[in-house]
Write a structure and sequence with these properties.
The protein is of the alpha+beta class. The chain has 13 helices and 8 strands.
């Protein structure tokens, strides 16, 4: 997938592009000379498209084969129907547009909105390690659990749209893995889904949140710091569910597994900076190697952990 921008005032060209970019579909209703613009931010299998449709457009589309999220900014989307339900969306709505295996149809009414798509297998990977799940994880509703959940998902989508085009992100497997996990975790938290734990599982997770769980997780993390680790990978190595792993770290270390992983990687950054030749190395290059692409956040975390700027460490 590549980032791109598409602009056209021709309905035929717009339909052709939508067929290439999404799935086979038919559109109609647009007068001649009305502008359409689609700006895509992409990395690996994740795409975030900001779409502006300057007319009333109907659509009838085949299944996408992907998780598809839609956030409406202006205008309306009406008569949207798929999988036995029909709904209308207005500014502020963040929804799951259609199941990956179902066709969908509806009308765009002079609207700007985003479409975020990714491989459904990512949900199963993030949610399913460490416990038995019968089949792929599926979303059970098209609207989020709460306004707070929708707001958090909206913030994640905005972060992805800003972050994915960054070349430092494109070239860092560690950063891409972190972004993928963030997106999947946000979706699982936002929507009811088949991976939601029942009370019996929650009790088992609490019993598994022991010091031995933390020790197994730390051993695995320390041995694989240069690999693209998801929280599900760490949970699998510790032999527990993601929920049990999170509970164990909070209970015994007062932090989260991923926060501790970032701390360990900051230690690697520091070690490289201490040993580096300032004329041959840069802070940004070292940081990117260990999965830190946002210079300001990395610098703040480094100063909090070591009491000095990374540039100071490198200059010594």
């Amino acid at each position: 997938m590549e980032s791109l921008v598409f602009e056209s005032q021709d309905l035929g060209r717009t339909e052709e592009f939508l067929n290439r970019a999404y799935t086979k579909m038919q559109i109609g209703g647009g007068p001649a000379g009305v502008h359409t613009r689609i700006a895509r931010a992409a990395a690996e299998s994740i795409t975030v498209d900001r779409i502006d449709i300057g007319f009333e457009m109907s659509y009838d589309a085949d299944p996408l084969g992907k998780i598809c999220l839609c956030e409406v900014y202006t205008g309306r989307i009406t008569d949207h129907a798929t999988d036995g339900w029909e709904d209308a969306f207005q500014p502020g709505d963040v929804v799951s547009f259609a199941p990956p295996d179902r066709p969908y149809a509806g009308k765009i009414r002079t609207s700007s909105y985003s479409i975020t798509m990714f491989d459904p297998a990512l949900l199963t990977r993030v949610a399913g390690i460490g416990r038995k799940i019968d089949g792929p994880v599926r979303l059970l509703a098209h609207r989020p659990r709460s306004r707070q959940a929708a707001r958090h998902l909206s913030q994640t989508i905005a972060y992805l749209a800003d972050t994915l085009p960054n070349p430092a992100v494109q070239n860092s497997p560690l950063v891409l893995a972190s972004i993928s996990q963030l997106l999947a975790s946000s979706v699982l938290a936002a929507f009811p889904n088949t991976a939601d734990a029942d009370p019996q599982q929650i009790g088992a997770d609490s019993r598994d949140a022991r010091p031995t769980t933390v020790r197994r997780a730390l051993t695995f993390m320390e041995s694989n710091l240069d690999q693209a680790l998801a929280i599900a990978d760490i949970a699998a190595a510790a032999g527990v569910t993601v929920r049990a792993l999170q509970t164990a770290f909070q209970r015994h270390l007062g932090t989260t597994p991923l926060a501790y992983l970032r701390r360990l990687r900051l230690e690697e950054v520091r070690a490289e900076l201490v040993a580096a030749d300032p004329s041959q190395q840069t802070v940004a290059a070292v940081a990117a190697r260990w999965g830190f692409h946002h210079h300001g956040r990395m610098t703040a975390a480094y100063r909090e952990q070591y009491g000095e700027l990374p540039s100071t460490t490198l200059a010594r």
